[in-house]
Amino acid sequence: MRKLLILLLAGWLLACTGPQPQPLIALIPDAPDRLTHVVMLDGRTGEMNESDKAADIAAALALLQTLAVVRQADQSARAGYLYWLDLYAGDERLVRLTFGGQTVRIDGVYYDLDRAVEAELGDLFAALGATAALSTPPTLTDTAGLETFLDDFFAAHLDAYQIPGAVVAVVVDGRLHLAKGYGYADLAGQRPVTPTTVLDVGSVSKLFTYTAVMQLVEQGRLDLHTDINQYLTRFQIPDTFSQPVTAAHLLTHTGGFDEWDIGAAARTPDEVLPVCDYLAQRLPPRIRPPGQLLVYANHGTALAGCLVEEISGQPFTDYVAEHILAPLGMDQSSFGWPPELMAQMATGYELRPDGPHPYPIYYRHYGPAGELKTTAKDISRFVIAHLQDGRFEDAQILQPETAALMHRQQYSHDPRLPGFTYGFFEDELNGRRTILHGGDTTPTFSSLLLLLPEENTGLFIAHNTVEWHFRQELVEAFMNRYFPAVPPDPVQPLAEPQLEQYAGYYLPSLVQRSSNIEKVLGLLSQFRLTAEPDGTLTLHPGGGFVQSSRWMAIAPDHFRQLDGEGKMLFHRGENGRIQHMFYSDMASAAFTRLAWYQTTPFHLGLLLITLLVFVTAVAAWLLGYRRRQTAGREAALAGLIGLLNLLFVAGLFWVLQTRSFDLIFGPTTLIYLISAIPLLTLCLTLLLLLLTLLGWRRPKGGTLRRLHHSLLLLASVAFFWFLHYWMLLGFNY
Fold this sequence. Notes:
Blueprint: H1 2-16, E1 22-23, H2 31-34, E2 37-42, E3 48-51, H3 54-66, E4 68-72, E5 83-89, E6 92-100, E7 103-106, E8 109-113, H4 118-127, H5 143-157, E9 165-172, E10 175-186, E11 191-192, E12 199-200, H6 205-218, H7 247-251, E13 265-266, H8 275-282, H9 298-312, H10 316-328, H11 339-342, E14 349-352, E15 355-358, E16 363-364, E17 373-374, H12 376-387, E18 391-392, E19 395-396, H13 400-407, E20 425-429, E21 432-441, E22 445-452, E23 457-463, H14 468-482, E24 504-508, E25 527-531, E26 536-540, E27 549-555, E28 558-561, E29 567-572, E30 578-583, E31 591-593, H15 600-626, H16 632-658, H17 669-697, H18 703-725
Antiparallel strand pairs: 1-4, 2-3, 2-5, 4-8, 5-6, 6-7, 7-8, 9-10, 9-23, 10-11, 12-17, 13-16, 14-15, 18-19, 20-21, 21-22, 22-23, 24-25, 24-31, 25-26, 26-27, 27-28, 28-29, 29-30, 30-31
């Protein structure tokens, strides 16, 4: 309390008395008597060094004595900081100083310095092992420095990730500060990427759909919390649950619909269905009450686009062109496919082991969720409008209050985590709130639109193959250079956290499918938590989503990442057991705790055992013929069942490995033929059951053979249960 009062009094005096220099040590007068060690973090390298040497402690005190503050700085003075200096008295941190150029932050309050600080700071930081020269931190207003930074990044990463071409745009303070292309829009023709190269931005398109919805809201033509069936005329949403689906649910991905990709696209523009007609035929079923969980849904966004059509009376593509693209001057952008625009489009590439290969364009039936074609120059105008309360130059696509409502958090799985606005994902990067949306047109295009509203800054990145680690590295490098993080405050681990209650398997909502064969995605996408002997949890991700990480309990059901600021939280069901896990790296996903019979090891083990039994049935059948023995009806039938089941598993695996993306255009003849095999073997298994029962009643042919057939029947029951569980039994498309 004493320290807090001193800091508040000092801050008030500095702010009110004008340029009356006083030493920094006045803000922590008890430092000379209590200081035991100092810790320095180098903002350029992330390296942290600690020292309890008398010379270093004396140097830190001398620094505080000589550096004088004159006034509290405007918050807009925030910029990249070079060094953090923590002064400790034992385990208690007395103060944190964050230095950057002529500004210092002291426990969260910004002050100006009345003198050049290079010499005084440089000596101390050099003694503590600093590797970077102390200088004014980089700022986004330095266009040449920004361009050099981007040039260096793309030179180092473009080839490393085998990205054919990319474009980046940076918006600062209401204007396009820099837009530049790198690499090639077309490798064969060596056509370079430029800020006017047309690219498919995938799910970034959703932001335009949500903006269109919010325009109708501010016009009073759509209520966010009214049952959307009141606006739909071509079809109705089933009343599966008592709670109706509203536009607010669609804009926050909490509508409660299942999701699928099979049959969601066409090979030519002429085959694309109008969005409302498509949804009337292919809207996924409702599988949970609305508002219960955030589950990313392309069809939910398509439904929002259908609302725009129904309410406005215009085709969705025409509405967006007239009310968003045209006012912003986005002349090289469209949700359609005009020939003159498509002629300027970059070639999309599929990244294979031997490098990028051209991949044909495909066209989505759910266009409002991902069909925008645009350029970096064009989309920067949309970025500016959202950073400027809906305004770009003389165009006002949203009223300020509507833009503020759209950018405000509307849903979160836990108040301690980022959530979702009306359209944007939230994230916290280096301690700063960001709102963003990514887009992946698998396997050809990837993009990201990121806004830092408080810093009035926007970043857009797009490239012509899917490699989301590339754009993630760019964002991290950009933030670390211009908005670096302050080290988190130390926390004490929770005593006796009882980690075993958290250990187990969890399925992310991103792949929770229930209505067709896409449910099998959950088989290899489960996350696993293990309790370690040192009192921590290790998160083992499935499906290649993120890297493994270690977590420490700091409160009941609350963990912090050991090597970062990540948060992990657990929610319990009515029975008091863990039901869901959430964590900040994937804050938009809910992770459902799985029972033992739902886990990957159980199902893969069960499948392996059944396949081994089928192999023995085939072997016994073939061995009988090789020895020129009469196999008998039961042995032949058992061998045929085993062979067909093995062929089904091999065929399905081959399709999923090599032809799975073809299913986006609808089920193929091959997948129909493969899916028919289990139905045939089911009939044959029932016949074998009858023959086996008769064989036990009138024993002949040997007890061992009858036992083997009985074992095959048990394996078949397990096999068909496995297929039923994963929606693989029948034509579930």
